[in-house]
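User: For a benchmark we're assembling, each entry needs the component sequences followed by a predicted structure for the full assembly. Here are entry 17's components. Please fill in the structure.
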Amino acid sequence: MISTKGRYGLRVMIDLAQNNDGSYIPLKDIAERQEISKKYLEIIVKQMVEGGLIKGLSGKGGGYKLVKKPEKYTVGEILTLLEGTICSVACLADKHYDCPRRKKCETLPMWKEFDGIVHDYLYSKKLSDLL
Amino acid sequence: MISTKGRYGLRVMIDLAQNNDGSYIPLKDIAERQEISKKYLEIIVKQMVEGGLIKGLSGKGGGYKLVKKPEKYTVGEILTLLEGTICSVACLADKHYDCPRRKKCETLPMWKEFDGIVHDYLYSKKLSDLL
DNA sequence: ACTATTTCCTACTATGTCAATAGGTTTATC
DNA sequence: GATAAACCTATTGACATAGTAGGAAATAGT
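Assistant: Structure for entry 17:
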């Protein structure tokens, strides 16, 4: 299940794309348009800056801005950054799952196939497709 | 993310299918073969009985048994029963989400399409495909 | 009837994540 | 120097996850 972080973040990206006139867009405006708590968006947007998805400018006249054209972003990369992983099943979320049954597990191939389908969809979908 | 409930439940179904000789299969055996806590499986299996996926028989010689042939079960129906919903996004999980932005939301169509793909995959996959 | 084995049932719990909120500091513009 | 914005750290309530614990009821064989 995609959380609000991913969903809100995606909407911020769309908002930035739609209102892009070259200048920086203040978060306050985005929060109002999207009807999301500005305070909460700060957390999300911070992650997006750190992840290099957008850039921010402090001070009066500041705000946020996309660093690439909308067609250069995929929904998958945006969600992965915010959700940590878009993995459908813990067994595939690399790291901590060193499941001893991996070799004989009857469900693993299916999960892999499923995960592939999910990834294919999300990484083929561009931000520009949502405008 | 599919939780252990759904994943373990699916493995129980596979185990029941593989070891089906007409008699009832005790949970103890399944727990040992699958290396999952029997106590925890009790909770999961109970849901599956209530949902009509399998049937149980108490007492000595008792256990659990499939009620249909493996090719008559879809992975989707098994997971839906155990997970409550396999919805990828809260906005689509019917009930509580009466989102006021539904009409103008730019992301909703994508989530619907995504959800459709997920459902198509899981409901076309049969239990018998995993044996 | 007794015993063993199994499901069935209720309750509890530790841990972690989600979705925020709160309040302040720094940075840039006019 | 006032204003407006990003940036930063910390805290919180609610809920879900992944179990554990202990026993009651049902069934089969002896």
